[in-house]
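sry for the spam today, last one i promise. struct tokens for design, 409 residues
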């Protein structure tokens, strides 16, 4: 049975639909008169950017654009943006782009509201109070950052990326317009979608915890719960039904819309339910190989599901039945295997590699990667099957060989 406990953390306003980017001017004007827009060089050069700036101006909003957002969000880039915009003193910060742009908006808002090293806030519940309102406008379907309490950055003093997790970082407003994803190339659509699916599956199969009145105020990730389950299962159904089409036919607005909705649902799911082993392991793998987050997640997810079978069979079986990979007459073990096979099959069809060798991981680095994975404590302890360095190494070994591992007792 699912736990009779639920937590949802979400923006004050969540607006979804084709063309809804045109609500940005009014939404920003409701919150302030000076807006900093955090985006990247590619998006800033598109005609739609001029339309967005004209909409802000028409609503009496003065806008300054920072178009220097870098992939994987290095600390230096965040500090550069803060230095450039401090004199402008924005009332509102808009994150317009992929996950890095939205995370930049969150962290710039945090820095402006609570000056000092960002390292003061690494971890959970270390943001001392409200930040300037953030409006998140995603242009990819994957991170779910538009609705989550998490921002991730690359600090050169740390071996791998670090997170700041606090409900204070949830954007005030999320505007999800699938038309903005139409120019997203197939490869990025695939790995972004894999990340979204991992958010949903890992949240749905997260550790259930005994509810206490203060858990939601002391843990960002409370584990499996009835509200995150609702969003996770809806996300999984949408992504299985539409992601392959969105990758193959990027101009299919209906498919793009359903994938974006699935990504947003996944963000709402893991914003309280949390993620697990695939995300914990990807952080050091990504740092080692300098590869995109979603790519590593897509490779690792089926192997972490294999590892988790003994602890998460019921959840995986429910997923299999929800997506039509198993019928009501199939046993739990059979349906569980069908879910894992369905994930592998979908990822293969959208072009995600099946082995860590394909992104440059070497056998002699597995022990070090396993140890580093354990430092993502909030993810490790959220995994349904207990994780230790030996268990993580077994996952890495299977993923390196490109072969499922045997059942884990």
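last one done:
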């Amino acid at each position: 049975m699912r736990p009779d406990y639920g937590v949802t953390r979400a923006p004050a306003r969540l607006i979804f639909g084709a063309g809804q980017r045109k609500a940005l001017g009014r939404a920003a004007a409701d919150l302030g008169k000076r807006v900093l827009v955090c985006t990247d060089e590619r998006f800033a050069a598109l005609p739609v950017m001029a339309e967005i700036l004209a909409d802000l101006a028409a609503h009496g909003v003065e806008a300054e654009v920072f178009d220097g957002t870098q992939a994987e969000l290095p600390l230096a880039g965040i500090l550069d943006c803060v230095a450039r915009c401090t004199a402008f003193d924005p009332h509102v910060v808009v994150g317009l782009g992929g996950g890095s742009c939205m995370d930049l908006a969150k962290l710039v808002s945090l820095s402006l509201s609570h000056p000092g090293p960002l390292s003061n806030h690494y971890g959970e519940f270390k943001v001392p109070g409200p930040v300037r309102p953030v409006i998140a406008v995603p242009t990819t379907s994957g991170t779910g950052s538009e609705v989550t309490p998490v921002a991730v950055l690359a600090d050169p003093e740390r071996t791998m990326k670090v997170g700041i997790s606090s409900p204070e970082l949830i954007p005030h407003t999320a505007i999800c317009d699938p038309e903005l994803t139409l120019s997203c190339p197939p490869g990025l659509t695939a790995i972004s979608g894999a990340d979204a699916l991992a958010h949903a599956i890992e949240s749905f199969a997260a550790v259930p915890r005994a509810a206490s009145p203060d858990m939601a105020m002391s843990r960002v990730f409370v584990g499996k719960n009835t509200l995150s389950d609702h969003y996770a299962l809806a996300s999984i159904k949408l992504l299985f039904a539409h992601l392959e089409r969105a990758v193959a036919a990027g101009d299919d607005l209906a498919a793009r819309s359903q994938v974006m909705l699935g990504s947003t649902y996944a963000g709402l799911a893991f914003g309280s339910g949390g993620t697990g082993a695939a995300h914990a392991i990807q952080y050091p793998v990504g740092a080692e190989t300098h590869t995109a987050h979603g790519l590593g997640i897509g490779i690792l997810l089926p192997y972490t599901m294999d590892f988790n079978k003994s602890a998460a069979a019921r959840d995986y079986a429910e997923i299999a039945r929800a997506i039509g990979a198993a019928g009501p007459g199939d046993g739990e073990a059979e349906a569980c295997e069908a879910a894992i096979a369905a994930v592998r099959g979908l990822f293969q069809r959208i072009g995600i590699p099946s082995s860590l060798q394909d992104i440059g991981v070497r056998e002699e680095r597995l022990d070090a990667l396993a140890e580093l994975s354990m430092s993502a404590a909030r993810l490790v302890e959220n995994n349904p099957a207990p994780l230790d360095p030996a268990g993580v190494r077994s996952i890495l070994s299977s993923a390196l060989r490109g072969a499922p591992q045997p059942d884990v007792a």
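Residues 13-181 form a domain with the Rossmann fold fold (CATH 3.40.50.1970). ok im logging off now
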